[in-house]
Amino acid sequence: MLRILGKQTSLFVIVMMLAVNVAALSAQDAVCDVSASESVAFIADIDGNYEIYTINLDGSCIQNLTSNPFDDLAPSWSPNGQILAFISTRSNPQGDVYIRTGEIDIRVTNNGATNIAPIAWSPDSRYFAFVSTQNHAQGDIFIYDVLNNSLSNITNDANPDFSPNWSSHGSEIVFVSGNSSASLMPYVFNFTTGERSRLLDSEEATWFPAWSPSGNYIGYFTISSSDGIYLFDTATANIEQLLVESSASPPMSWSPRNLEVAFAAGSVEGYRIYVVDLLNHLIAELPTRNRYAISPAWAPSGRYIAFFSQGQHARSSLCLFDYSTHQSVVLADQILVFSSEVDPFLLQSSPISWRAHPQPEHLIANSTDSFAIC
User: Fold this and answer.
1) Average pLDDT for 164-187
2) How many CA atoms lie within 13 A of 232 on its CB side?
3) Beta partners for 306?
4) What pLDDT score was predicted for residue 69?
5) Does residue 36 contact residue 56 with C-beta atoms inside 8 Å?
6) What are phi and psi of 197, to 5 degrees?
C-alpha cells in the first residue's frame, strides 16, 4: 500500500547513472512485439558507453535501440509514440540531437555546440524544444519543427536558458533564465505574440518547471534558503508549497489526470518517490524495499509510474508502480548504479521516457503477480 506521510524529511540531491547487467539483457525475445502495450525507454551502459533500451510492461522484449560505440542519452518519445528524440555523442562529443523514425536515425543539430536535455515535445508531436549553445555559450531554447526539418532560437540572449516544458494547449513554453545558474527564474514564451514574460516575482532560484496536463498549474523546484517544490496556479497566480524545507531531485512528473504529481526526495538515509494528491491534499510514498528510488515517470495511461530503485549492494532495478494494486514490481533487474561525468541535466531530467499506446486498457500481457517486489 501507499504510505501516507504526516511529516516531511530533510533531503538532498543525488546524481546517479545506470548500467544494465549483460546477463539480464541477453535474455531478450528473438521476436519483439513493441506495439502490444505502452513501453518504457531508458538509458543503460553494458559495454562502456550509454545506449537507449526499451522494454515492454510484461518485462519482455528488452531492445537496444541505438547500438553504437558512443553515448546515447535523454530519450524522449513524441506524444503520438511515433518518434524518439535523444542526444548522442556519435558525431559530436558535446552531444547532438537526433530523432528516430522507424529504424532510421536523423541528425537534427550539426554545429559542434553543446545540446542539453530535457527534450520537450509539443502536444501535437510536431515540435520539440531543447537547449543549445549554438548561438550563445550559456545556452538558448531552440525549437525543432519535425515537419519542415527546421530549427529556430526563441530566446537568443546571453543569459543561460534551460529546462523548457510545453503547455498542454501548445501555444506556450515555460523555461528558466537568469544571469547565472544561481539566479534562474521561470519565464513563459508565447508563440502567438512572440513575447516572453516572467512568471514569478520571487528572487529564488528555480529549476525544472513542469506544466500540468490541464495547464492549470506549473510545478517547479527551488534551490535557495526555502528549498522545496511549489505549484503556481496559472489562473490566480497563487503559489502553494508542496514540500517544505526540502531538497528534491527532478524530474517532476504529472499524472495524465492532472490530479497528482510525482517526484523524488530523501536524505542521506535514502531517497523515495512521493506522489501528491492535489484533490485530497495528501502526500504518499511509493512502496520500495530498496534504499534509493529516483526518476519517476508517469505512463500516458495514468496507471503506472516507472522509476529506478537501488538497494544496499549498489544494484538497481527498473521498477513499475501499479495504481490498481498499489504495488511496486521489478520490470528489469540487475542494474548497477555509479557516478558519472555525463552532464547532470541528462541524468536528472530524462533517463526514462514512456511510449504511448492507442489502447491503454490492454497494457500488460501477464499479471504483475509473477513479478518480484521492488
Assistant:
1) 89
2) 21
3) 297, 320
4) 92
5) yes
6) -135, 150
